[in-house]
From TrEMBL:
A GO term from the CC aspect: plasma membrane
Pfam family membership, one: GNVR
Top-level taxon: Bacteria
Organism per entry: Marivirga sericea
Keyword Nucleotidyltransferase: no
Domain called Tyrosine-protein kinase G-rich: residue spans: 455-532
UniProt family annotation: Belongs to the etk/wzc family. Belongs to the CpsD/CapB family.
GO molecular-function terms, A-Z: ATP binding; identical protein binding; non-membrane spanning protein tyrosine kinase activity
Record-given protein name: non-specific protein-tyrosine kinase
Residues annotated as transmembrane: 40-58, 515-536
Chain residue ranges for the region called Disordered: 1-21
Coiled coil: none
Length: 803
């Protein structure tokens, strides 16, 4: 008997491994995954090459997008109360609300004006083998225009080839004829009307077409300006250079950098023009206000001028004595004051109407200073009103929900409007009193004038009427001239700091990033596949898997056999598998130390785990040690162990347990020395009941008189209860676990039986070990190569174990 504890398999039978591993909840063995990655490295390489090839194709054929940037500075205005709050220049320098500039820049009309000026609705494309790219040439001599009263066929396209300086050919042309759309090819002359989809288009040649553009095929596409404007509106970005700065950075991205540079250049010019027009709006309104007043007095002034000339013509002598001169001078002074009152009254009427209309924008109001009225009270109140208007707009841009502060500001603004209207009413009443005073003085002077001779009296009356209107006309003409000068000298507050330019290389595709991303994808996909396989693999792969699932000790490991014959130990005693059974024999002695005669039960969870193979070879290695051994085939439902020994199953255990025969009558000799076989015998109808009879125990006791070892091959415990009945006779039970075959749940179930005491003296034998490496364990014995001085066998493919 070999009682040595083999170091090869002592790792399995370490008593310190009696409890499950702390990694019992680990679903993935990353060492095993890493081993598969290394083993199947060529799959990683193939997927990585495919991923890098995909990245190359994307980088090669993706449209390159370039960044274009520009910087502009917006002149600041000082926020002051009073007239200066409204205007630095009283007429043409209105207050600017910087919070509105972002919205002005992104406004649809402003962007569309630039699009229309650049004629972006007509685009040329060059066709490639895989993709088409835009051909942009701002100096392209061919101009495409719709017929008067028509528009371009937006959404349509056609192929165009410039044949020479006078002719061009349209291919794949859509011509609507009799309500049918026809695709055709035709040659046209420049300047000729071309019917395209019901629209008539004119192609004008405004210069010489370059030789490189002749006989080249282009795709001519007509895009809707509304759509193009929307695209530029979404991709144009404007950001302040820094907090509190008046420098604005503009940027947009596009596939054709020259086109985007031209757009930004034109866009800035349009923005500057809009700024000038907006500033001139106040001057224009002032001029309009004055013109309205001039129109009212122009005819009257001409009437009195004509009347004065007729008076001088009819009356040669126009000298007046001292009293007449005194009266005339006094009347002229009083009428000059009346001119001021008249202008003020007209302005207050305008201001009252303006404030009562809530649709009027406050920045469009005509200020008192612009018409020569010095009224600090009204000017300061208007300044406060405009300041409140700016604050309300700031709140509305920041806050999209109701805000108590915003409501307070609105109420304050409404109250201020009411106060201004009330002040205007009071001022009109005050001016009315003063006008009455002026009229009384006029009446007094007119009474004095009546005392003069009739001729002098008539002359003074005519000259007085003429002088009053002439003074009013002259005053308004002076203010109009000032407004016109201010308008003519207005400059834009928008100044270009950095003109539009290309800001570096293409931002998409990001070639390096694409290569990196696809390389990662090429690595992640196969690795993830290995991880998923590991995650969903519920079979026992290694000793570590067993230790995670159970507290039952692992007694040893058996390598993969290459022979079809199950008698490996007998046929190949120098093989690694035979050595594994010798190690198992030593470990069993360790578990059953102190007993001379022993019964070993071999069972499993399901069929196919090598139960019969293990029983035969364990019995063989025990018999070869010189100890008489009896092998009992207790699986009476599927008897087959006799086939491996070339024996019969005409009688056996079923005959013995049913009382039909004696032990010595059913035992058969095998070709292995010291090894006898008690096969299962004919299949009985009640195997479990037979095993529970006392005759089973008595038969085992009787067998011990002849044999030192009894090895029992039992049915799987997951299918029938025979193993539970037989386990009470066994000194030690081997539970078979086959690599890559036994479900993990079966080991967990066996652990539950063991912990509840249903099966005692139980250990696990790890069978059919084929896989080795990280995550599978090392030195467990493999079917190809092992030797303690026995030599090595060639690696090869064999058969799976039967049982």
């Amino acid at each position: 008997m070999d009682n040595q504890f083999n170091p090869y398999s002592s790792d399995f039978a370490d008593p310190s491994m009696g409890t499950p591993s702390s990694e019992g909840n680990q679903l993935i063995d990353f060492k095993r995954v890493l081993y598969k990655v290394i083993k199947f490295w060529y799959i990683i390489v193939i997927t990585s090459l495919i991923a890098l090839s995909s990245a190359y194709i994307i980088n090669r054929y993706s449209t390159r997008i370039y960044p274009v940037t520009a910087s502009i500075m917006i002149k600041e205005n000082q926020e002051e109360v009073g007239a200066k709050f409204l205007y630095n220049n009283a007429i043409s320098d209105p207050y600017r609300n910087f919070y509105n500039e972002m919205y002005v820049i992104k406004s649809f009309p402003l962007i569309r004006s630039a699009i229309e000026e650049l004629n972006f609705e007509v685009a040329y494309y060059r066709e490639g083998e895989i993709k088409s790219s835009e051909y942009y040439n701002p100096n392209f001599p061919v101009e495409v225009k719709p017929e008067d009263g028509s528009q371009l066929p937006y959404g349509k396209s056609a192929g165009i080839t410039f044949l020479n300086q006078k002719q061009f050919k349209l291919s794949n042309l859509s011509i609507t004829s009799d309500d049918n759309e026809v695709r055709t090819e035709k040659i046209f002359q420049f300047g000729e009307l071309v019917p395209i989809n019901g629209h008539k288009v004119i192609f004008n040649n405004n210069g010489a077409i370059a030789e490189g553009d002749l006989d080249k095929y282009f795709v001519l596409r007509f895009d809707d300006p509304e759509s193009i404007t929307g695209q530029y509106q979404s991709k144009l970005t404007a950001k302040w250079a820094e907090q509190g700065s008046s420098v604005l950075n503009l940027s947009l991205n596009g596939p054709e950098p020259r086109k985007e540079i031209d757009f930004l250049t034109t866009f800035i010019a349009k923005y500057q023009k809009l700024d000038i027009d907006r500033k001139n709006q106040t001057a224009s309104q002032t001029i309009q206000f004055i013109d309205d007043q001039l129109n009212g007095i122009s005819d009257t002034l001409q009437f009195y001028e004509q009347k004065l000339m007729e008076f001088k013509k009819d009356n040669v002598v126009t000298n007046m004595d001292g009293e007449a001169v005194r009266i005339y001078e006094n009347l002229r002074e009083i009428e000059e004051a009346a001119v001021q009152y008249t202008v003020q009254e007209q302005y207050y009427d305008y201001l009252r109407k303006f404030l009562r209309n809530p649709d009027n924008a406050m920045e469009q109001v005509v200020t008192p200073q612009s018409v020569g009225i010095e009224d600090q009270v009204i000017a300061e109140m208007l300044g406060k009103l405009l300041k409140l208007d700016v604050e309300i707009k700031r709140f509305q841009q920041k806050e999209k929900i109701a805000n108590p502060v915003l409501e307070n500001k609105k109420q304050e603004m409404q109250a201020l409007r009411t106060n201004i209207l009330s002040s205007i009413k009071t001022l009109k009443e005050t001016r009315g009193i003063m006008q009455k005073s002026v009229k009384r003085q006029q009446q007094i002077l007119e009474e004095q004038l009546k005392l003069l001779p009739g001729l002098q009296q008539d002359f003074i009356n005519i000259k007085r009427d003429y002088s009053f209107r002439e003074g009013l006309y002259t005053f308004l003409m002076q203010k109009r001239a000032e407004a016109a000068i201010s308008k003519a000298s207005t400059t834009s507050d928008i100044r270009t700091i950095n003109p539009p330019k290309l800001a570096g290389g293409p931002i998409t595709p990001k070639t390096s990033q694409n290569y990196l991303i696809f390389l990662v994808i090429g690595l992640v996909i196969p690795i993830s596949f290995f991880i998923v396989l590991e995650l969903f693999n519920n079979k026992i792969q290694s000793k570590e898997d067993i230790e995670r699932a159970t507290s039952i000790q692992v007694i040893g490991g058996i390598g993969h056999k290459k022979l079809q014959d199950n008698l490996v130990v007998f046929r190949k005693p120098r093989s690694a598998v035979a050595e594994s059974f010798r190690a198992l024999r030593s470990n069993l002695n360790f578990y059953t130390e102190g007993k001379e005669k022993k019964i070993f039960l071999v069972t499993s969870s399901i069929s196919g785990e090598g139960k019969t193979f293990t029983t035969i070879n364990l019995a063989t290695v025990l018999a070869l040690s010189g100890r008489p051994t009896l092998l009992i085939g207790a699986d009476m439902r599927r008897p087959k162990i006799f086939d491996d020994f070339k024996l019969h199953n005409e009688f056996g255990l079923s005959n013995l347990l049913s009382g039909q025969a004696e032990l010595q009558e059913v035992v058969q000799k095998t070709e292995v020395d010291n090894l006898d076989l008690l096969s299962a015998g004919p299949i009985p109808p009640n195997p479990s009941e037979l095993l529970m009879k006392d005759i089973m125990k008595n038969s085992l006791d009787k067998a011990f008189k002849t044999y030192d070892f009894i090895i029992i091959d039992s049915p799987p415990i997951a299918l029938v209860t025979d193993a539970f009945v037989l386990s009470k006779f066994a000194d030690h039970t081997l539970f078979m676990v086959r690599q890559d075959y036994t479900p993990k749940e079966a080991v967990v179930a066996a652990n539950e039986l063991y912990t509840k005491g249903k099966i005692k003296n139980l250990s696990i034998l790890f069978n059919d070990i084929k896989k080795a490496g990280p995550g599978y364990g090392y030195g467990y014995g493999y079917g190809y190569g092992y030797g303690y001085g026995y030599g090595k066998e060639k690696n090869g493919h064999g058969y799976y174990q039967e049982g």
